[in-house]
Prior knowledge:
homodimer; mainly alpha; two-stranded antiparallel ribbon; DNA-binding
Amino acid sequence: MGYAAGVNEKESSSMSLKHALLTALSGKPQSGYDLSREIEGSIGFFWNASHQQIYQELAKLETQGWLGVREVAQAGKPDKKVYRVTAAGLRELKRWMTDDDPDLPPIKDGLMIKLFAGHLVDPDVIRSAIETQAARRQVRLNRFREIESRFFAGQTLSLERQYQYLGLRRGIRGEEAWLEWSKEALAIIQKK
Amino acid sequence: MGYAAGVNEKESSSMSLKHALLTALSGKPQSGYDLSREIEGSIGFFWNASHQQIYQELAKLETQGWLGVREVAQAGKPDKKVYRVTAAGLRELKRWMTDDDPDLPPIKDGLMIKLFAGHLVDPDVIRSAIETQAARRQVRLNRFREIESRFFAGQTLSLERQYQYLGLRRGIRGEEAWLEWSKEALAIIQKK
DNA sequence: ACCCACATGTAATGTGTTACATGATTTT
DNA sequence: AAAATCATGTAACACATTACATGTGGGT
């Protein structure tokens, strides 16, 4: 039988909007719409998804038995489908939490590609691309810091909130590091 | 004509392995195989792709006229297809470099999801997940630092190499920030 | 009138992964 | 003899985005 060896390719076990949704719903039962709102805040900073994707994924998770649904009528508003995590869903979430993902999360940063092709264009193009991103990152950092001082600083935190706070701290440090880098980068580019 | 407004959804103009490949090939013409090697190093740190995806994308780019191919016979080895960027391809790359991507790059970090669900499991599970990632990030940081001191430190750099160096600096600062965060996080978790 | 928030979806397309497939040469 | 490197690809599937679609009620 003739086929050679190069088979041990990647195996990212992550790939899981599923588990992000289970996590968000384990807090409190919610509708797809609610989730797509919430996911723009705390948890969604680390795992992004559009509302279409969320609706599809919720339907799958329900079929699979990890979620249950209940249709709730509302006065003056469309009905909503409120999802909750089942016992099987919770089991799956806990299982996933113990398995080790061998890869670091992949990065897809267009600005870095632009950097690597920077010599092909006027330095002003690169400078302005960096400055534009820096402005957006600064906005995000400010938002994070506000959340920190409003909801976390100087308060006694439950274990759950403590973990949330660590997530926020990760966001803060990430943006700070990016902004420091951008200063270094702009200083060097300016000198040309 | 009856349909309402909520239409102004996201519009990430990034999504571009295409441009990562154009960038890599603008340096020197290469085969898909060469690219899949190179992409594990410098540029690939910021834009990941498997060899299958690269082959498919190269074929598309050639059809589109942004790349040209030349089959090169080799002694004792399979033929290879060497791709180069065409004039149209270079035009497209430069065009892309000037357009503004309104979104910050999306993050998909499973560890952060685990954090948010941390209260559902024993703190040891979280602690060990963080430690495992920290070890991998430390390895990556060491590799970056070695590249820095071997190929960039104390040398006069061309514009092209200068930009590459800034990319590397971004990688270094990113990993440093992550590791500092992990110390903070572990210190807090340990106290429980 | 128009827009926004609420609320849920389908269809088509595009991007990315996993598994399968081949086959010569070089290293262990 | 087994395994790794070189080199390219197809097929099936899973994940994600864009565009389309509907309809109520409240604010400007």
